[in-house]
Amino acid sequence: MTAQLNARGDVAVVVPAAGAGVRLGPGAPKALRLLEGEPLLVHAVRRLAAAPSVRVIVVAAPPAEVEAVHALLAPVAPVTVVPGGAERQESVAAALAVVPPEAAIVLVHDAARCLTPPSVVERVAAAVRDGADAVIPVLPVVDTIKEVDAEETVLGTVDRSVLRAVQTPQGFRASVLRAAHAAAAGLHTDDAGAVEKLGIPVRCVPGSDLALKITRPIDLAVATHLLTLPENGR
Length: 234
Ligand code: CTP
Ligand code: MG
Description:
Layout: E1 11-16, E2 34-35, E3 38-39, H1 40-49, E4 54-61, H2 66-73, E5 80-83, H3 88-96, E6 105-108, H4 118-129, E7 134-140, E8 145-148, E9 154-158, E10 164-166, E11 170-173, H5 174-183, H6 191-197, E12 203-206, H7 217-228
Parallel strand pairs: 1-4, 1-6, 4-5, 7-12
Antiparallel strand pairs: 2-3, 6-11, 7-10, 7-11, 8-9
Helix pairs in contact: 5-6
Bound molecules: cytidine-5'-triphosphate (CTP) and magnesium ion.
């Protein structure tokens, strides 16, 4: 059933979904690969559309798949689809360019984090609404982390208590994200990184194990299992 978005919501979500998925192995672009019979992008957009604050969703699709992605998502939720770029940052910029000015808050959410629950979307948006310019969902780092030299000899053990693993959606006051993208000289790996370069504080909120990024085949296996848990169903 097509979800209704909240016409009074204050959140636009930009969904970079134009990547190839090289690390997943040969096949369709990653966002179109199937998880329990449905493309990752469908899982992702369904959960975004279930977040009450979301008013607009803009997907950056592989350029050759814009029409197909539009047809695929039409039964899921009303979305705008634009052609993505060669780098994630370009895909985000292409989608950001068509976000309407009414959205005071813009979230950037990887299609590859397709099981991210609506509660995380709302938590990030609420922290921006609460006054933060930039908000990222994070998890503690569970592995011991070593710094090594070029010969793989250990230089030392990093204090992991001050480290965080970063997920999406990352949330921003719309003007802050636009300024960060306009100012970005080189490539950044995440959008909060571009905001950090402007000297603007970035606030952390709790992420979710369900917001794992589908990167390698093992992640698809984990996600398939997670979908069997009743609270994550379609
Ligand atoms: N992405 C994008 N445009 C690109 C590259 C990536 O929109 N040119 C999106 C991906 O579709 C994904 C998100 O950015 O939703 C995170 O990127 P990543 O997990 O690296 O996905 P891919 O680039 O597709 O994977 P790989 O790096 O293995 O090719
Ligand atoms: Mg990539």
